[in-house]
Amino acid sequence: MKLILVALLSCLLGTAVGVGALLLTEDVGAEDLLGFAPLMFAAAALTCGLAYAPGLFWLRRRKGCEPAAAFPLVAAFVLNLPVFLFFAFALSAGKFFSGPGEVLLFALAFVAAGLAFGRGFVWYCRGLKPAAG
Question: What is the pLDDT of residue 132?
């Protein structure tokens, strides 16, 4: 149950970072926000369940919970590689995104969600004790 909370909070954080970046970089309307936020949240939730959690459980089984800095970095950059490859393909196809800026917003949101999930996973892994350092 606690890992589900970590996943939901990391999805919310990733969505908030993406929405914040969207608001800072472009003049957006309500339809833009209503399109971006649910799509980002749903995609981040799927990524948490299908990539981050299994990947980090595998890493924990191999290395324990140390080094703690590896978990957020692995979730943010290594486990997001399929997402980044999809973004590159979708951008080259020219049918899914309006340009490189939109792809960068989604990628930034996924990196934020991965970092948050990785940090939360370390917290979960250590028996919910505050992590040192």
Answer: 52
